[in-house]
Hints:
By secondary structure, the chain is α/β, with parallel strands linked by helices. The strands form 4 sheets. Strands 1, 2, 3, 4, 16 and 17 form a 6-stranded mixed beta sheet that branches. The protein has a 6-stranded parallel beta sheet with strand order 6-14-7-8-10-9. Strand 12 and strand 13 form a beta hairpin.
Amino acid sequence: MINKTNNKKYIFSFIGSGISSMFLLNEFLKNKELSNESLFHIFEKSIFPFGLVRNGFAPDNYKTKENLTKLFIKNLKQNNNVKYFGNVFINNDNLKKISPNYSLIFSGNGLQKKRLLRIPNENLMFDAIDLAKWYNGDIVEDKNLKYAITNNKINNLIIIGNGNVSLDIIRILFLIKYDLLYKYGVPEDRIKYIKKLRNKINKIYIIGRNSIDNPSFTKFEFKNFLRHCINCGNINIKINDMKIINKNNFYISKKINFFHNSINTNNNDENNSYKKKDIIFLFNNKPIKYDGKYLYLKNNFDEDKIKSNIVIKSIGRDRQDFIQINNLIKLPIYKNISEGLIYSKNLFEQIMSQINNKLIKKHDIQKLNSCLEELKSKNKIIYKKDLFKIDEYEKNQGVKKGKIRDRITEIQNVFKLL
């Protein structure tokens, strides 16, 4: 039984509005007795909410993206005790100031810290997550990418890392038809540059330091990738050593052989890719240097180089952790949605046990409000009402244009709408 008092409530804070935060919030809100005695504050550093659901999932996963967005928006709309503060960056300094006023703080700020290869001229490469945000329509600075795509000399593209994100990038940039990209909500200006890229690129290299018997991509994603290659046509897949594949990885060998038997090389639909392309997987290769023109690789005792002025680094990211605070709980990064749902339910049950045992305290709302005033004064806040307005606008514009949603891609247009 929850102890009810008039002047104090349980006050929970979520730093970040991605899946880990929103799934846990959903568990709280399902418990009406607790949620009625609680306040929930969501701090999001970006203009737009929901993290990878909006800007990380591949556009062709639009059903998952829209269903989750609908759930998250519904929870915000139907619960007045949930407050949203967008365009607010929480760092260690302001976290120390506000933390004493919260019962618990949940850190769901995701993977913010870019991993490094620690090779010369790594700064000339493009980050895979930034690229995913770009074709998803996020507000990102993409001048360097646009310049690289319009460079007349480009004919090779290199992706370092052979995980699922790498396959997503190839699928979006080269394999899915333009009319489907449009329907899925990829902005027209992004599609324009994707068309230019498809016209220029002859070879796509996927570089992985691991061996063929231990690839970073999952079987499901690889199968889906090959299916898109077959549907597209004009695609030729190569592996640096097929003998190793046939010997050590029967699954990949079987799928590659199926691909070569199924591919329709006569499919020259301009809605896909205008020219034939080679997709080349290089396993057991480690980048050692990049000079802006050539990527130098090491394979055992041999060295090689590949010419390209577009190199995409898809090697993952790490957490940017906060300082240690007693009432701070770090939420994990989920491998899939099912894992997130299960973990959120288990964590909520642990929190309820602590509440019932009076291990979690209530706090004074007035003290918290005064503490937040300084934080609010330093930012142009996106509140819930603003969030709902943006969501409705994008959906309505999408209906008018025959797409899932028409994303706002310029920051000035966000504040113009509001």
